[in-house]
Design a protein that fits this description.
By secondary structure, the protein is α/β, with parallel strands linked by helices. The protein contains six helices and seven strands; from the N terminus they run αβαβαβαβαβαββ. The chain has a five-stranded mixed β-barrel with strand order 2-3-4-5-7. The longest helix is centred in the first third of the chain and has 13 residues.
């Protein structure tokens, strides 16, 4: 983690965002800005992404509408007694890069994960007016405390990689790539 990224995280007063997220809100976000996200978030990792793309290619309905929705690259651990969900941390986003352009062109605009995105994905984020948020890796147990409800909505056979509909409250995130293609992982001169 470079000092500029840490500085960007603590410099701004966090913005509170509610899902579904409008294009106007996305356009107003700036790389490095901290946000607290509340509302509905859908989990999906690479196996689920592959199936979503297959559904699109066959012209079949998706398990949830993409417009204004958020996909969190995560697969939670089993729920301990008395908890809605187990630990849930971000998955390395690069694993979804092969599927992201097609999903974004189908209407997905908001993603949460960790790590660098490919140049192609950054270009598609810019093209589609999307945003990529970074969740803090290594804080899976803390992130799970932001989840107030969870249910499997598709691909139950994938276990932890099934698509889940989560209700989150004040999930702390950082704008990693804004709608203009600016990226916290790209050094500035």
């Amino acid at each position: 983690m470079n000092a500029g990224w840490c500085f960007a995280f603590t410099l701004y007063e966090p913005m509170i965002i509610q899902t579904p997220i409008s294009d106007d809100v996305i356009a107003g976000l700036t790389t490095g800005q901290q946000v607290f996200l509340s509302g509905t978030v859908y989990t999906a990792r690479d196996a689920a992404h592959q199936r979503l793309v297959e559904l699109l290619r066959r012209g079949e309905a998706l398990p949830f509408p993409f417009a204004g929705q958020v996909v969190f690259y995560a697969g939670p651990s089993p729920s301990p007694p008395g908890r809605v969900i187990g630990s849930i941390g971000p998955t390395t986003s690069g694993r979804m890069d092969a599927y992201t352009p097609e999903l974004m062109r189908a209407g997905l605009k908001v993603m949460i994960g960790k790590g660098l995105r490919s140049d192609e994905v950054v270009a598609v984020i810019r093209e589609c007016g999307g945003v990529y948020f970074a969740a803090i890796g290594g804080a899976a147990a803390i992130i799970s405390r932001c989840v107030t409800a969870a249910e499997v909505v598709a691909f139950d056979d994938l276990g932890t990689e099934a698509i889940r509909k989560l209700t989150v409250e004040r999930l702390p995130l950082i704008v990693a790539t804004d709608s203009r293609g600016n990226c916290i992982y790209t050094p500035t001169n």
